[in-house]
Design goal:
The structure holds 2 protein chains of 2 kinds.
Chain A lengths: L1 E6 L3 H15 L4 E7 L6 E6 L19 H8 L9 E4 L2 H12 L8 E6 L8 H5 L2 H13 L9 H4 L11 E4 L10 E5 L2 H6 L6 E5 L4 H21 L6 H7 L8 H5 L19 H11 L8 H12 L8 H5 L6 H15 L29
Parallel strand pairs in A: 2-4, 4-5, 5-6
Antiparallel strand pairs in A: 1-7, 1-8, 2-3, 6-7
Chain B lengths: L8 E6 L3 H10 L8 E6 L7 H9 L4 E6 L10 H19 L6 E5 L5 H18 L11
Parallel strand pairs in B: 1-2, 1-3, 3-4
Helix pairs in contact in B: 1-4
Classes of the chains: A alpha/beta, B alpha/beta.
Amino acid sequence: MSKALKIKNGVDKGLNDLLAYLLQNKDIKGIFALKKMNENGAASYSLMAKVDELKNAAPLHPLMPVNAGKVLSSFSLMEATKEPVAAVLRPCELRAFIELIKRNQGSLDNILLISLTCGGVYPLQSVADGNTKKHLPRYWESLKKAEIDPDIRMTCQSCEHFIPDMADMTIATVGKKDLDKECTILLNTPKGEDYAKDAPGNIVSEEIETPETEKLKKKREEQRKKMLEDLEKDGLGLKALVKTFSACLACHGCSHACPICYCTLCDFDSKTLEYSPQSFISELKQKGGLKVPPDNIFFHLGRMTHMAVSCVNCGMCSDVCPVNIPVATVFSKVGLSLQEEFNYLPGRDVEESVPYGIYKEEEFAEIGEQ
Amino acid sequence: MSNEYIPRIIGFLCNWCSYTGADLAGTARLKIPPSLKVIRVMCSGRIDPLFVLKGFLKGADGIMMMGCHPGDCHYQKGNYNARRRYVMLQNILKTLGLEKERIELRWVSASEAPRYAQVTREFTEKIKKLGSNPTREEIFL
Protein backbone atom coordinates (compact mmCIF):
# COMPACT_ATOMS: atom_id res chain seq x y z
CA MET A 1 0.00 0.00 0.00
CA SER A 2 1.29 3.40 -0.78
CA LYS A 3 -0.13 6.83 -0.25
CA ALA A 4 -2.16 8.36 -3.03
CA LEU A 5 -3.55 11.78 -3.77
CA LYS A 6 -7.14 11.82 -4.96
CA ILE A 7 -8.30 14.92 -6.78
CA LYS A 8 -12.00 15.40 -7.42
CA ASN A 9 -11.65 16.32 -11.05
CA GLY A 10 -11.18 14.45 -14.34
CA VAL A 11 -7.73 12.98 -14.77
CA ASP A 12 -6.63 15.62 -17.32
CA LYS A 13 -7.89 18.55 -15.28
CA GLY A 14 -6.85 17.02 -11.96
CA LEU A 15 -3.29 16.58 -13.16
CA ASN A 16 -3.19 20.13 -14.48
CA ASP A 17 -4.47 21.31 -11.08
CA LEU A 18 -1.58 19.52 -9.41
CA LEU A 19 0.96 20.92 -11.89
CA ALA A 20 -0.41 24.44 -11.35
CA TYR A 21 -0.20 23.89 -7.60
CA LEU A 22 3.43 22.78 -7.90
CA LEU A 23 4.28 25.91 -9.90
CA GLN A 24 2.48 28.30 -7.58
CA ASN A 25 3.11 26.89 -4.14
CA LYS A 26 6.22 24.76 -4.35
CA ASP A 27 9.74 25.42 -5.57
CA ILE A 28 9.06 23.88 -9.02
CA LYS A 29 10.07 26.43 -11.65
CA GLY A 30 9.15 24.56 -14.80
CA ILE A 31 6.79 21.85 -15.99
CA PHE A 32 8.09 19.49 -18.64
CA ALA A 33 5.15 17.88 -20.39
CA LEU A 34 3.38 17.41 -23.70
CA LYS A 35 1.64 20.45 -25.07
CA LYS A 36 -1.03 20.42 -27.75
CA MET A 37 0.18 22.07 -30.93
CA ASN A 38 -2.92 21.86 -33.12
CA GLU A 39 -6.35 20.33 -33.39
CA ASN A 40 -5.10 17.35 -35.42
CA GLY A 41 -3.58 15.85 -32.32
CA ALA A 42 -0.03 17.06 -32.84
CA ALA A 43 1.78 17.56 -29.56
CA SER A 44 5.26 18.52 -28.57
CA TYR A 45 7.25 18.28 -25.37
CA SER A 46 7.57 21.72 -23.82
CA LEU A 47 8.91 23.41 -20.75
CA MET A 48 6.26 25.60 -19.19
CA ALA A 49 6.92 28.11 -16.45
CA LYS A 50 3.59 29.96 -16.27
CA VAL A 51 0.28 28.67 -15.00
CA ASP A 52 -1.44 30.22 -18.06
CA GLU A 53 0.61 28.02 -20.34
CA LEU A 54 -0.71 24.93 -18.62
CA LYS A 55 -4.15 25.28 -20.17
CA ASN A 56 -2.68 23.91 -23.41
CA ALA A 57 -0.69 21.23 -21.64
CA ALA A 58 -1.84 17.71 -22.42
CA PRO A 59 0.52 15.49 -20.42
CA LEU A 60 -1.62 12.40 -21.00
CA HIS A 61 -2.14 12.88 -24.72
CA PRO A 62 -1.25 9.52 -26.28
CA LEU A 63 1.60 10.60 -28.52
CA MET A 64 5.39 10.32 -28.27
CA PRO A 65 6.90 12.86 -30.69
CA VAL A 66 10.31 12.05 -29.25
CA ASN A 67 11.37 9.82 -26.39
CA ALA A 68 11.24 12.23 -23.44
CA GLY A 69 14.14 10.45 -21.74
CA LYS A 70 16.35 11.78 -24.50
CA VAL A 71 15.08 15.34 -24.00
CA LEU A 72 15.40 15.23 -20.22
CA SER A 73 18.96 14.02 -20.67
CA SER A 74 19.71 16.92 -22.99
CA PHE A 75 18.98 19.49 -20.31
CA SER A 76 20.49 17.68 -17.34
CA LEU A 77 23.55 16.55 -19.27
CA MET A 78 26.48 18.46 -17.82
CA GLU A 79 25.00 19.06 -14.37
CA ALA A 80 21.66 18.82 -12.60
CA THR A 81 19.11 21.44 -13.65
CA LYS A 82 19.63 24.60 -11.60
CA GLU A 83 15.91 25.03 -10.96
CA PRO A 84 13.64 22.18 -9.91
CA VAL A 85 11.53 20.84 -12.77
CA ALA A 86 8.54 18.52 -12.71
CA ALA A 87 8.49 16.15 -15.67
CA VAL A 88 5.50 14.12 -16.82
CA LEU A 89 6.61 11.21 -18.95
CA ARG A 90 5.66 7.67 -19.88
CA PRO A 91 7.23 4.62 -18.18
CA CYS A 92 9.41 3.66 -21.16
CA GLU A 93 10.63 7.25 -21.45
CA LEU A 94 11.46 7.25 -17.76
CA ARG A 95 13.34 3.98 -18.12
CA ALA A 96 15.25 5.40 -21.07
CA PHE A 97 16.18 8.41 -18.93
CA ILE A 98 17.45 6.12 -16.17
CA GLU A 99 19.51 4.18 -18.72
CA LEU A 100 21.02 7.45 -19.94
CA ILE A 101 21.88 8.52 -16.39
CA LYS A 102 23.75 5.22 -15.94
CA ARG A 103 25.81 6.29 -18.96
CA ASN A 104 26.55 9.71 -17.40
CA GLN A 105 24.13 11.43 -19.75
CA GLY A 106 21.90 13.14 -17.23
CA SER A 107 21.04 13.69 -13.62
CA LEU A 108 18.00 12.86 -11.52
CA ASP A 109 18.62 15.71 -9.09
CA ASN A 110 16.12 18.53 -9.11
CA ILE A 111 13.70 16.63 -11.31
CA LEU A 112 10.35 15.53 -9.91
CA LEU A 113 9.42 12.47 -11.95
CA ILE A 114 5.72 12.06 -12.61
CA SER A 115 4.76 9.03 -14.64
CA LEU A 116 1.62 7.02 -15.31
CA THR A 117 0.29 3.55 -15.79
CA CYS A 118 0.46 3.74 -19.53
CA GLY A 119 -2.15 2.84 -22.09
CA GLY A 120 0.25 3.28 -24.99
CA VAL A 121 0.63 5.95 -27.64
CA TYR A 122 -0.53 6.39 -31.22
CA PRO A 123 1.93 6.03 -34.08
CA LEU A 124 3.19 9.43 -35.26
CA GLN A 125 1.54 8.75 -38.60
CA SER A 126 -1.84 9.26 -36.90
CA VAL A 127 -1.07 12.98 -36.62
CA ALA A 128 -0.40 13.21 -40.34
CA ASP A 129 -3.60 11.28 -41.03
CA GLY A 130 -5.48 13.74 -38.85
CA ASN A 131 -7.76 11.19 -37.24
CA THR A 132 -6.42 11.30 -33.71
CA LYS A 133 -9.33 13.35 -32.47
CA LYS A 134 -11.82 10.84 -33.84
CA HIS A 135 -10.02 7.94 -32.18
CA LEU A 136 -9.34 9.51 -28.79
CA PRO A 137 -12.67 8.56 -27.13
CA ARG A 138 -11.99 4.92 -27.94
CA TYR A 139 -8.50 5.22 -26.43
CA TRP A 140 -9.88 6.42 -23.11
CA GLU A 141 -12.66 3.81 -23.14
CA SER A 142 -10.20 0.93 -23.60
CA LEU A 143 -7.97 2.42 -20.91
CA LYS A 144 -10.87 2.40 -18.45
CA LYS A 145 -11.64 -1.21 -19.29
CA ALA A 146 -7.94 -2.18 -19.19
CA GLU A 147 -8.03 -3.34 -22.78
CA ILE A 148 -5.67 -2.84 -25.71
CA ASP A 149 -6.66 -0.07 -28.10
CA PRO A 150 -5.98 -1.44 -31.62
CA ASP A 151 -4.91 2.03 -32.84
CA ILE A 152 -1.82 2.32 -30.64
CA ARG A 153 1.73 1.43 -31.66
CA MET A 154 2.44 -2.26 -32.18
CA THR A 155 5.18 -1.97 -29.56
CA CYS A 156 2.76 -0.46 -27.04
CA GLN A 157 0.24 -3.20 -27.70
CA SER A 158 2.81 -5.74 -26.59
CA CYS A 159 4.38 -3.80 -23.70
CA GLU A 160 3.92 -5.32 -20.27
CA HIS A 161 6.09 -2.77 -18.45
CA PHE A 162 3.40 -0.11 -18.32
CA ILE A 163 3.88 0.49 -14.59
CA PRO A 164 6.80 2.88 -14.00
CA ASP A 165 9.66 1.87 -11.71
CA MET A 166 11.49 4.98 -10.54
CA ALA A 167 8.71 7.61 -10.58
CA ASP A 168 8.10 9.90 -7.61
CA MET A 169 4.43 10.08 -8.51
CA THR A 170 2.38 7.72 -10.66
CA ILE A 171 -0.91 8.71 -12.20
CA ALA A 172 -3.21 5.68 -12.16
CA THR A 173 -5.07 5.41 -15.44
CA VAL A 174 -5.24 1.73 -16.39
CA GLY A 175 -8.55 0.20 -15.34
CA LYS A 176 -9.77 3.35 -13.55
CA LYS A 177 -13.45 3.46 -14.41
CA ASP A 178 -14.06 6.92 -13.00
CA LEU A 179 -11.24 8.63 -14.91
CA ASP A 180 -13.58 11.44 -15.94
CA LYS A 181 -14.49 12.24 -12.36
CA GLU A 182 -11.44 11.68 -10.26
CA CYS A 183 -7.72 11.64 -10.61
CA THR A 184 -5.61 9.23 -8.55
CA ILE A 185 -1.93 9.99 -8.17
CA LEU A 186 0.17 7.51 -6.24
CA LEU A 187 3.02 8.90 -4.21
CA ASN A 188 5.85 6.38 -4.44
CA THR A 189 8.73 8.19 -2.79
CA PRO A 190 9.18 10.55 0.19
CA LYS A 191 10.00 13.25 -2.38
CA GLY A 192 6.68 12.67 -4.11
CA GLU A 193 4.81 12.70 -0.78
CA ASP A 194 6.52 15.89 0.20
CA TYR A 195 5.50 17.71 -2.96
CA ALA A 196 1.89 16.52 -2.71
CA LYS A 197 1.50 17.27 1.00
CA ASP A 198 -0.90 20.21 0.87
CA ALA A 199 -2.02 19.78 -2.71
CA PRO A 200 -5.73 20.06 -3.50
CA GLY A 201 -7.35 16.69 -2.83
CA ASN A 202 -7.32 13.95 -0.20
CA ILE A 203 -4.55 11.60 0.74
CA VAL A 204 -5.71 7.99 0.73
CA SER A 205 -4.07 4.56 0.62
CA GLU A 206 -4.03 2.68 -2.64
CA GLU A 207 -2.29 -0.16 -4.42
CA ILE A 208 -0.68 0.44 -7.79
CA GLU A 209 -1.19 -3.12 -8.97
CA THR A 210 -4.85 -3.95 -9.29
CA PRO A 211 -6.68 -6.88 -10.89
CA GLU A 212 -7.17 -4.59 -13.90
CA THR A 213 -3.46 -3.95 -14.40
CA GLU A 214 -2.89 -7.71 -14.07
CA LYS A 215 -5.52 -8.26 -16.75
CA LEU A 216 -3.91 -5.79 -19.13
CA LYS A 217 -0.50 -7.30 -18.48
CA LYS A 218 -1.76 -10.75 -19.48
CA LYS A 219 -3.30 -9.38 -22.67
CA ARG A 220 -0.17 -7.53 -23.60
CA GLU A 221 1.97 -10.61 -22.97
CA GLU A 222 -0.26 -12.58 -25.34
CA GLN A 223 0.08 -9.83 -27.90
CA ARG A 224 3.86 -9.88 -27.58
CA LYS A 225 3.92 -13.62 -28.14
CA LYS A 226 1.84 -13.15 -31.26
CA MET A 227 4.06 -10.36 -32.53
CA LEU A 228 7.23 -12.43 -32.11
CA GLU A 229 5.57 -15.37 -33.84
CA ASP A 230 4.67 -13.09 -36.74
CA LEU A 231 8.28 -12.02 -36.98
CA GLU A 232 9.45 -15.61 -37.01
CA LYS A 233 7.04 -16.85 -39.64
CA ASP A 234 9.74 -16.31 -42.27
CA GLY A 235 12.01 -18.42 -40.14
CA LEU A 236 15.28 -17.37 -38.56
CA GLY A 237 18.73 -17.04 -39.98
CA LEU A 238 20.60 -14.99 -42.50
CA LYS A 239 18.07 -15.16 -45.33
CA ALA A 240 15.21 -14.08 -43.05
CA LEU A 241 17.31 -11.27 -41.60
CA VAL A 242 18.24 -9.99 -45.04
CA LYS A 243 14.59 -10.13 -46.05
CA THR A 244 13.43 -8.24 -42.94
CA PHE A 245 15.90 -5.42 -43.47
CA SER A 246 15.94 -5.51 -47.26
CA ALA A 247 13.98 -2.27 -47.61
CA CYS A 248 16.35 -0.35 -45.33
CA LEU A 249 17.37 3.00 -46.80
CA ALA A 250 20.32 3.43 -44.43
CA CYS A 251 18.81 6.72 -43.22
CA HIS A 252 19.83 5.71 -39.66
CA GLY A 253 16.60 7.28 -38.43
CA CYS A 254 16.14 4.40 -35.97
CA SER A 255 19.44 5.19 -34.36
CA HIS A 256 18.74 8.94 -34.25
CA ALA A 257 15.33 8.38 -32.65
CA CYS A 258 16.61 5.76 -30.21
CA PRO A 259 16.90 7.16 -26.67
CA ILE A 260 19.71 4.74 -25.79
CA CYS A 261 21.85 5.63 -28.84
CA TYR A 262 23.37 8.71 -27.27
CA CYS A 263 26.79 8.82 -28.98
CA THR A 264 27.46 12.22 -30.50
CA LEU A 265 29.07 10.53 -33.46
CA CYS A 266 27.90 7.01 -34.18
CA ASP A 267 30.50 4.60 -35.56
CA PHE A 268 28.18 4.02 -38.47
CA ASP A 269 27.91 7.73 -39.32
CA SER A 270 31.63 8.28 -38.93
CA LYS A 271 34.57 7.77 -41.24
CA THR A 272 35.65 4.73 -39.19
CA LEU A 273 33.37 2.35 -41.02
CA GLU A 274 33.12 4.25 -44.28
CA TYR A 275 33.83 2.37 -47.48
CA SER A 276 36.78 3.61 -49.46
CA PRO A 277 36.26 3.77 -53.24
CA GLN A 278 38.64 0.82 -53.58
CA SER A 279 36.59 -1.34 -51.22
CA PHE A 280 33.57 -1.09 -53.51
CA ILE A 281 35.61 -2.37 -56.45
CA SER A 282 37.34 -5.12 -54.50
CA GLU A 283 34.07 -6.37 -53.05
CA LEU A 284 32.50 -6.23 -56.48
CA LYS A 285 35.31 -8.40 -57.81
CA GLN A 286 35.12 -10.86 -54.93
CA LYS A 287 31.38 -11.24 -54.63
CA GLY A 288 30.08 -10.11 -57.97
CA GLY A 289 27.81 -7.49 -56.43
CA LEU A 290 27.03 -5.50 -53.34
CA LYS A 291 24.28 -3.43 -51.84
CA VAL A 292 24.87 0.30 -51.97
CA PRO A 293 25.00 1.98 -49.52
CA PRO A 294 26.76 -1.05 -48.03
CA ASP A 295 26.73 -2.61 -44.56
CA ASN A 296 22.99 -2.82 -44.09
CA ILE A 297 22.83 -5.85 -41.79
CA PHE A 298 26.12 -4.80 -40.19
CA PHE A 299 24.58 -1.50 -39.10
CA HIS A 300 21.60 -3.15 -37.43
CA LEU A 301 23.61 -5.95 -35.81
CA GLY A 302 26.29 -3.51 -34.73
CA ARG A 303 23.77 -1.18 -33.17
CA MET A 304 22.30 -4.19 -31.41
CA THR A 305 25.61 -5.05 -29.77
CA HIS A 306 25.79 -1.51 -28.46
CA MET A 307 22.31 -0.86 -27.12
CA ALA A 308 19.98 -3.87 -27.26
CA VAL A 309 20.65 -4.84 -23.64
CA SER A 310 19.25 -1.46 -22.58
CA CYS A 311 16.37 -1.45 -25.08
CA VAL A 312 13.34 -0.06 -23.23
CA ASN A 313 10.98 -1.14 -25.98
CA CYS A 314 9.58 2.34 -26.61
CA GLY A 315 9.01 1.71 -30.31
CA MET A 316 10.45 5.00 -31.58
CA CYS A 317 12.65 3.15 -34.11
CA SER A 318 9.75 1.39 -35.80
CA ASP A 319 7.70 4.54 -35.68
CA VAL A 320 10.22 6.70 -37.52
CA CYS A 321 11.17 4.04 -40.07
CA PRO A 322 10.09 5.40 -43.47
CA VAL A 323 9.83 1.92 -44.97
CA ASN A 324 8.02 0.23 -42.08
CA ILE A 325 10.66 -2.27 -41.06
CA PRO A 326 9.66 -3.83 -37.71
CA VAL A 327 12.92 -2.61 -36.13
CA ALA A 328 11.45 -2.44 -32.64
CA THR A 329 10.21 -6.02 -32.78
CA VAL A 330 13.60 -7.39 -33.81
CA PHE A 331 15.40 -5.26 -31.24
CA SER A 332 13.03 -6.07 -28.42
CA LYS A 333 13.36 -9.76 -29.23
CA VAL A 334 17.14 -9.57 -29.00
CA GLY A 335 16.93 -7.19 -26.05
CA LEU A 336 14.72 -9.54 -24.05
CA SER A 337 17.06 -12.42 -24.68
CA LEU A 338 20.10 -10.37 -23.59
CA GLN A 339 18.31 -9.01 -20.54
CA GLU A 340 17.45 -12.54 -19.49
CA GLU A 341 21.06 -13.64 -20.00
CA PHE A 342 22.44 -10.89 -17.75
CA ASN A 343 19.41 -10.79 -15.40
CA TYR A 344 18.96 -7.13 -16.18
CA LEU A 345 15.93 -4.92 -16.62
CA PRO A 346 16.69 -1.54 -18.18
CA GLY A 347 15.54 1.40 -16.11
CA ARG A 348 14.60 -0.67 -13.08
CA ASP A 349 17.06 1.00 -10.76
CA VAL A 350 19.49 3.84 -11.30
CA GLU A 351 22.02 2.13 -8.98
CA GLU A 352 22.23 -0.95 -11.20
CA SER A 353 25.09 -0.92 -13.74
CA VAL A 354 24.82 -1.61 -17.44
CA PRO A 355 25.95 -5.23 -17.95
CA TYR A 356 28.94 -4.31 -20.13
CA GLY A 357 31.98 -3.01 -18.32
CA ILE A 358 31.10 -4.87 -15.14
CA TYR A 359 31.70 -8.55 -14.49
CA LYS A 360 31.81 -11.25 -11.86
CA GLU A 361 34.96 -13.33 -11.74
CA GLU A 362 33.14 -16.59 -11.18
CA GLU A 363 30.49 -16.23 -13.92
CA PHE A 364 30.64 -18.06 -17.30
CA ALA A 365 33.57 -20.08 -15.92
CA GLU A 366 33.34 -22.81 -18.56
CA ILE A 367 33.77 -20.36 -21.47
CA GLY A 368 37.19 -20.37 -23.14
CA GLU A 369 38.60 -23.27 -21.13
CA GLN A 370 37.77 -26.20 -23.47
CA MET B 1 49.22 -29.58 -53.56
CA SER B 2 45.98 -31.20 -52.60
CA ASN B 3 42.64 -29.56 -53.24
CA GLU B 4 41.78 -29.70 -49.57
CA TYR B 5 39.36 -27.01 -48.38
CA ILE B 6 41.17 -24.60 -46.10
CA PRO B 7 38.73 -22.41 -44.19
CA ARG B 8 39.50 -18.75 -43.71
CA ILE B 9 39.60 -18.00 -40.01
CA ILE B 10 40.43 -14.68 -38.39
CA GLY B 11 42.17 -14.85 -35.05
CA PHE B 12 42.21 -11.90 -32.68
CA LEU B 13 45.16 -12.65 -30.40
CA CYS B 14 46.11 -10.85 -27.24
CA ASN B 15 49.62 -9.44 -27.39
CA TRP B 16 50.51 -10.62 -23.89
CA CYS B 17 49.43 -14.24 -24.03
CA SER B 18 48.12 -16.06 -27.07
CA TYR B 19 50.16 -14.02 -29.56
CA THR B 20 53.33 -14.97 -27.72
CA GLY B 21 51.91 -18.48 -27.39
CA ALA B 22 51.50 -18.64 -31.15
CA ASP B 23 55.06 -17.43 -31.56
CA LEU B 24 56.28 -20.15 -29.22
CA ALA B 25 54.29 -22.76 -31.12
CA GLY B 26 56.08 -21.68 -34.29
CA THR B 27 59.50 -21.74 -32.65
CA ALA B 28 58.76 -25.19 -31.26
CA ARG B 29 57.81 -26.27 -34.80
CA LEU B 30 54.40 -27.52 -33.73
CA LYS B 31 52.02 -28.43 -36.51
CA ILE B 32 49.46 -25.64 -37.00
CA PRO B 33 46.91 -25.52 -39.82
CA PRO B 34 47.39 -22.57 -42.21
CA SER B 35 43.76 -21.48 -41.78
CA LEU B 36 44.16 -18.96 -38.98
CA LYS B 37 44.99 -15.40 -40.04
CA VAL B 38 46.25 -13.63 -36.98
CA ILE B 39 45.44 -10.05 -36.00
CA ARG B 40 47.28 -8.89 -32.93
CA VAL B 41 45.40 -6.82 -30.37
CA MET B 42 46.81 -5.43 -27.17
CA CYS B 43 44.17 -7.20 -25.04
CA SER B 44 41.17 -9.43 -25.64
CA GLY B 45 39.21 -6.53 -24.12
CA ARG B 46 40.17 -4.49 -27.19
CA ILE B 47 38.14 -6.76 -29.46
CA ASP B 48 35.13 -4.63 -30.34
CA PRO B 49 32.12 -6.82 -31.18
CA LEU B 50 32.01 -4.79 -34.39
CA PHE B 51 35.37 -6.29 -35.48
CA VAL B 52 33.95 -9.76 -35.06
CA LEU B 53 30.66 -8.93 -36.75
CA LYS B 54 32.38 -7.27 -39.66
CA GLY B 55 34.56 -10.30 -40.22
CA PHE B 56 31.56 -12.57 -39.92
CA LEU B 57 29.46 -10.58 -42.39
CA LYS B 58 32.31 -10.14 -44.85
CA GLY B 59 32.58 -13.89 -45.21
CA ALA B 60 35.18 -15.12 -42.73
CA ASP B 61 34.44 -18.79 -42.13
CA GLY B 62 35.33 -18.56 -38.50
CA ILE B 63 36.50 -16.04 -35.94
CA MET B 64 38.67 -16.96 -32.99
CA MET B 65 39.17 -14.65 -30.04
CA MET B 66 42.03 -15.53 -27.73
CA GLY B 67 43.03 -13.98 -24.45
CA CYS B 68 44.67 -14.64 -21.11
CA HIS B 69 43.10 -17.02 -18.62
CA PRO B 70 40.73 -15.33 -16.16
CA GLY B 71 42.73 -13.60 -13.46
CA ASP B 72 45.84 -13.33 -15.64
CA CYS B 73 44.95 -10.26 -17.72
CA HIS B 74 47.84 -7.86 -18.23
CA TYR B 75 45.35 -5.03 -17.64
CA GLN B 76 43.56 -6.76 -14.71
CA LYS B 77 40.09 -7.09 -16.21
CA GLY B 78 40.17 -6.88 -20.01
CA ASN B 79 39.48 -10.57 -20.50
CA TYR B 80 36.48 -10.46 -18.15
CA ASN B 81 35.01 -7.70 -20.29
CA ALA B 82 35.80 -9.70 -23.41
CA ARG B 83 34.01 -12.69 -21.92
CA ARG B 84 30.82 -10.71 -21.30
CA ARG B 85 30.95 -9.29 -24.82
CA TYR B 86 31.45 -12.76 -26.21
CA VAL B 87 28.38 -14.01 -24.29
CA MET B 88 26.42 -11.03 -25.62
CA LEU B 89 27.50 -11.65 -29.19
CA GLN B 90 26.69 -15.34 -29.00
CA ASN B 91 23.29 -14.53 -27.55
CA ILE B 92 22.48 -12.07 -30.35
CA LEU B 93 23.55 -14.51 -33.06
CA LYS B 94 21.60 -17.34 -31.44
CA THR B 95 18.45 -15.23 -31.10
CA LEU B 96 18.59 -14.25 -34.75
CA GLY B 97 19.38 -17.79 -35.88
CA LEU B 98 22.84 -17.02 -37.25
CA GLU B 99 25.69 -19.50 -36.91
CA LYS B 100 27.15 -18.71 -33.54
CA GLU B 101 29.45 -21.76 -33.80
CA ARG B 102 31.63 -19.78 -36.17
CA ILE B 103 32.76 -17.51 -33.36
CA GLU B 104 34.75 -18.83 -30.45
CA LEU B 105 36.65 -17.59 -27.45
CA ARG B 106 39.60 -19.50 -25.98
CA TRP B 107 42.03 -18.69 -23.21
CA VAL B 108 45.61 -19.45 -24.21
CA SER B 109 48.55 -18.26 -22.15
CA ALA B 110 52.01 -17.29 -23.44
CA SER B 111 53.53 -20.61 -22.40
CA GLU B 112 50.76 -22.82 -23.78
CA ALA B 113 52.13 -23.41 -27.27
CA PRO B 114 50.73 -26.95 -27.51
CA ARG B 115 47.34 -25.67 -26.41
CA TYR B 116 47.48 -22.96 -29.08
CA ALA B 117 48.21 -25.57 -31.74
CA GLN B 118 45.49 -27.85 -30.44
CA VAL B 119 42.81 -25.15 -30.20
CA THR B 120 43.58 -23.95 -33.71
CA ARG B 121 43.43 -27.50 -35.06
CA GLU B 122 40.15 -28.25 -33.32
CA PHE B 123 38.50 -25.03 -34.47
CA THR B 124 39.70 -25.53 -38.04
CA GLU B 125 38.24 -29.05 -38.06
CA LYS B 126 34.95 -27.74 -36.71
CA ILE B 127 34.76 -25.00 -39.35
CA LYS B 128 35.66 -27.49 -42.08
CA LYS B 129 32.59 -29.48 -41.10
CA LEU B 130 30.43 -26.35 -41.11
CA GLY B 131 31.73 -25.41 -44.54
CA SER B 132 31.93 -22.04 -46.18
CA ASN B 133 30.20 -19.10 -44.48
CA PRO B 134 26.84 -18.40 -46.17
CA THR B 135 27.46 -14.64 -45.81
CA ARG B 136 29.96 -15.07 -48.63
CA GLU B 137 27.17 -16.08 -50.99
CA GLU B 138 24.74 -13.42 -49.79
CA ILE B 139 25.46 -10.43 -51.97
CA PHE B 140 23.02 -7.83 -50.74
CA LEU B 141 23.81 -7.87 -47.04
